[in-house]
Design brief:
alpha/beta, 5-stranded parallel β-sheet, 4 helices, 7 strands, disordered N terminus, 150 residues, Rossmann fold, disordered C terminus, two-stranded antiparallel ribbon
């Protein structure tokens, strides 16, 4: 069952599965989503799979390290549930293992400071639709501009 909670689409019970991708959305690329909250990982995976992306998830630093070491990703998303100290370590890990992979950080709020080594940011408060648009902009060079950090 799908549930809308605080502006996020969640999966209630059982395993999450990708929704049927929209027409023309296939072949979007490989994404690694990292979050310490499994419900948020399932939500992001469902949303991004429905856009035609292949999404792997990691719910720990070790899982993220393993995924980065074994798979080439087109984008890594670090969720807002991860503490700032772990975000810094994950960012360093991604930069070390996947040097050219863009890194998107989901911020808790607009007031949160963004680390200099993150390529893109999106605010969690803006909702899942904005996340999808930003990811599409990064990976598909869609018309909606997304500024890359200098």
């Amino acid at each position: 069952m799908l549930i809308l909670y605080r502006g996020l689409l969640l999966v209630s019970g059982g395993r999450s599965h990708c929704l049927t991708p929209r027409l023309g959305a296939m072949g979007g690329g490989k994404i690694l989503a990292v979050s310490y909250e499994r419900a948020l990982l399932r939500t992001r995976k469902l949303l991004l799979c429905s856009e035609g992306y292949e999404v792997s998830t990691a719910d720990s630093f070790a899982a993220a390290e393993n995924a980065c070491s074994n798979t080439a990703f087109n984008l890594v998303i670090i969720g807002h549930s991860i503490p700032r100290s772990d975000q810094k370590q994950l960012t360093a890990l991604v930069r070390h293992i996947c040097r050219d992979t863009p890194l998107l950080l989901i911020l808790r709020s607009e007031l949160e400071e963004c680390p200099a080594d993150v390529d893109y940011t999106v605010n969690a408060q803006d909702g899942p639709g904005v996340l999808v648009r930003v990811v599409n902009s990064i990976l598909r060079a869609s018309p909606a501009p997304v500024k890359k950090r200098a």
